[in-house]
Amino acid sequence: MIEKNHGVRCYVLIDFKIDELTHQDLGQMQMYVNYYDRYEKIEGENPTIGILLCKQSDEALVDLTLPENANIYAKEYKLYLPDKKLLQKKLKEWLDEEQN
């Protein structure tokens, strides 16, 4: 998924992986981020952000594979939704916050 976010003035690239995160996944995302920064980004825009959603993340692998200034983030996703009552409670809390 590619999204140009006007709020942060940059491209946001999102990749959803169904398996564990690998260094190949990180390298591929780094390539995509580099491409958008070099060929799609216009002057005045912020650097492209890459987000990898994966079944299992490994922070050590991320640290060793990517450069220190990389705008790439790897996070684990969950395969289940919270309880219906908990979702309803959270929704009510968010609506109450918006009204105040």
Automatic annotation (TrEMBL):
One Pfam family this sequence matches: YhcG_C
PANTHER family per the UniProt record, alphabetical: NUCLEASE YHCG-RELATED, UNCHARACTERIZED PROTEIN YHCG-RELATED
Xref: InterPro entries: PD-DEXK-like_domain, tRNA_endonuc-like_dom_sf, YhcG_C
Stretches assigned to the YhcG PDDEXK nuclease domain: 6-92
Species for this entry: Lachnospira intestinalis
Name of the molecule in the record: PDDEXK nuclease domain-containing protein
